Here is the input.
Amino acid sequence: MCLQRTLVAFALAAVFSGAFASTSLAHEAVGVAGGLVSGFMHPILGMDHVVAMVAVGLWGAFLGMPALWILPIVFPMVMALGGALGLVGFPLPYIETGIAASAVVLGLMVALEARPPTFIAAIIVGAFAIFHGYAHGAELPHAADAMAFSIGFVVSTGLMHLAGIAIGLLVKWRSGLLFVRGSGAAIAAVGVYFLVS
Here is the structure.
């Protein structure tokens, strides 16, 4: 009980501190160190990215095993592929639309307590991960080391998934389930905002 409260407090602190970080932190250094810092901060500084990453963790926790660990592994792996596509300039249309749609769909999956088979959930998560990764790869700062940047954004993404999982553990209690479902609805609403703006 105490460990779960600690995890939830850590998750909330991580998500909210990232949401209010200064955008100048993402691209100020150069080389390997600059690439790592830039890559780590890049997903955190985009609210559309943050809510989708947290939603993956929430949905995984909601679905339980084995989705609890499969979804947060599939997303960064496929995201890295998308990052490589963005880095080499492969043409992929509707990137921002895909990112916003990921928040809408993943948020709704949580809000509606959707329970598809794990492989279907993994396909949904993986399909959206391509767009998130592409955006990171395409926006790689010229001064940053590409490999370090990639490692940074994969680690950052994993931590946001863990934050979602920690919050998602609240589904064991009725009030916690309502909070998690409400969080899913809020994530979907943020996605709609990004779609129309």
About this structure: Confidence is low (pLDDT under 50) at residues 6-31.
